[in-house]
Amino acid sequence: MSSNAIVLLDIPCVVEGHVWSPNTWKTRFALNYKGLPFTVKWVEYPDIAQACKDIGADPTSTRADGSPNYTLPAIYDPSTGRGIAESALIARYLDKTYPDTPRLIPAETDVFHAAFQEAFLHLIQSKMLEIMLCPTAAQLNPPSEAYFRRTREAGFGKRLEELSPDGTVREMQWKQLQERFTIMAGWFSMDGNDKLFFMGNIISHADTSVASWLIWVRQVLGPDGPEWMAIQTWDGGRWARYMQYFEKYEVASA
């Protein structure tokens, strides 16, 4: 491994080396798609702020109390001495710094990507969070699980177990999520011609975002779980075909 390999900060879980976070998957897909070598530094949730400060990565938002909020993904690029956090900012940095690699946010698509992120947040992410937070917490190491539970339960105002209880509530949430994916599937054929990716035949940051939230389900609920098996049948198998394309970019570290 080159000493100039990019360092990706990621969040571990109880299974060593198991990659689960949908947000860090966005950057992992980006690095693999661009063919950029990288190593992984595992950071537990309570240590994220200090780890980001150590590499010079800025906070990604401000908390309600006015304090800075540091999140992953973040990378450190020893070739430039830069630390960057937040997947879209990382994608733009990689596009600019490594112009000979495939672009993730092609020229003139910044507005599209900004609009997509808002639409994806409200249509897909909001519902997936309800479903996925509790099973995700159960797979985290103790320091991260405690932090994850405390912060998410404060945000939702209820225990994680109450977000998607087994039975009719969870079944209805999955049905609603399927309906929302069908809405998104329609975006790919707005001109009457179905496309696999948002940009047609090439992937973009929008695609790595969708793939990352899909792979979250597979990694946490299991590749043989009924939920993941069901997703692969949705919309005529579109999402199974979608994820098959990304299999070659699932390398944990390069």
From TrEMBL:
GST N-terminal domain span: 11-102
Report the InterPro entries cross-referenced here: Glutathione-S-Trfase_C_sf, Glutathione_S-Trfase_N, GST_Omega/HSP26, GST_UstS-like_C, Thioredoxin-like_sf
Q: Known SUPFAM superfamilies for this protein?
A: GST C-terminal domain-like, Thioredoxin-like
GO CC terms: cytoplasm
Q: Which domain of life is it from?
A: Eukaryota
Source organism of the structure? Fibroporia radiculosa
The organism's taxonomic lineage, starting at the top: Eukaryota, Fungi, Dikarya, Basidiomycota, Agaricomycotina
Question: Would you tell me the protein name for this molecule?
Answer: GST N-terminal domain-containing protein
